[in-house]
Known about the structure:
Blueprint lengths: L4 H9 L4 E10 L9 E4 L5 E3 L7 H14 L3 E6 L5 H4 L6 E9 L7 H9 L4 E8 L8 E4 L4 E3 L4 H17 L3 E5 L10 E8 L4 E5 L3 H12 L3 E6 L15 E4 L2 H10 L8 E4 L4 H11 L7 E4 L3 H13 L4 H4 L15 H17 L6 H5 L6
Amino acid sequence: MRDVMDQLAGWWKNGETAALATVVGTYSSAPRQPGASMLVGPGGEAVGSVSGGCVEGAVYELGQQVLTDGRPVLQRYGVSDDDAFAVGLTCGGIIDIFVEKISPETFDQLGSVVEAVRAESPVAVATVLSGPAKRLGKRLVVWPDRVDGTTGSSRLDDAIRDDARGLLDSGRNAMLHYGVGGQRRGEELSVFVESFAPPPRMIVFGAIDFAAAVAKIGTFLGYRVTVCDARPVFATASRFPGANEVVVEWPHRYLSAEAKAGRIDGRTALCVLTHDPKFDVPLLEVALRLPAVGYIGAMGSRRTHDDRIARLKEVGVTDEEIVRMSSPIGLDLGARTPEETAVSIAAEMIAQHWGGAGARLAERVGPIHTH
Length: 371
């Protein structure tokens, strides 16, 4: 819902009704991830996308149907269906889409959800997609400290609340399955949890030209970007317009303070671009011992890397801790410019997050032979 939230909130605030179609499950090479949304507005407007253009036409018709009869629909599209190619999902994937009617009457908590998201406060929306008719479309809105709404079963509400808070911690969306009584067994009842966690953080250490490019691509990927350097003459906001903030502080001190304040988690990316041992060795000593970090990368040549490893071992960093670091940082793309290097760093982060190999897709598909 995040990608269409502003438009949806505008209609909701004016007392108008829209149909919200949300990707709630994906299989194989589906074009969009769970949480991608599309609206069918009160005037027939189409806003957003659930498949990058593959099944939007069919989903639009479903949205019009839901606006007319008010009944939510869970629909699967994919190559396993007889009419898969008729609706246009030719990418080989399968997607499950839930279409529901949204109005002040059907979703009275939407205003509170929008307010939380805009304030970058964590909140999750859990919606019942399948199961007993009396619970279909029921929802809970879950904050770290409270819950609004009910499925009609306190036991089920408690189970959903606990699972939704777990998803909030990681910023993930997920389809969950419960027994009707709230026990996690079988698939008698399905619930989609969309979590709106604050954006993940990227901290770029080293106020160099490469840092400006990395900060820019980090913002593009949805990170909240901080650039940190101990040298005030270089660490200025004017030099890093792509960053959300620029901090003048010794890197290891800043990272230690942020970790103690609870602002470093499993989604945080740390990009160490200083390649100066007086900065990066104490910094990496802190970083590599943090319990949860999404990505740690350090820039430098192979010679710099070898020297860095030796210095880290001298201060007691173990092999098990060192293996958490990507050094030299990035994938081997043959990058030369700061912008190209930023792409190689982003590519490595994405590959690590999703488990990609970083190989050419053309090699996976195989050559195309012509005669």
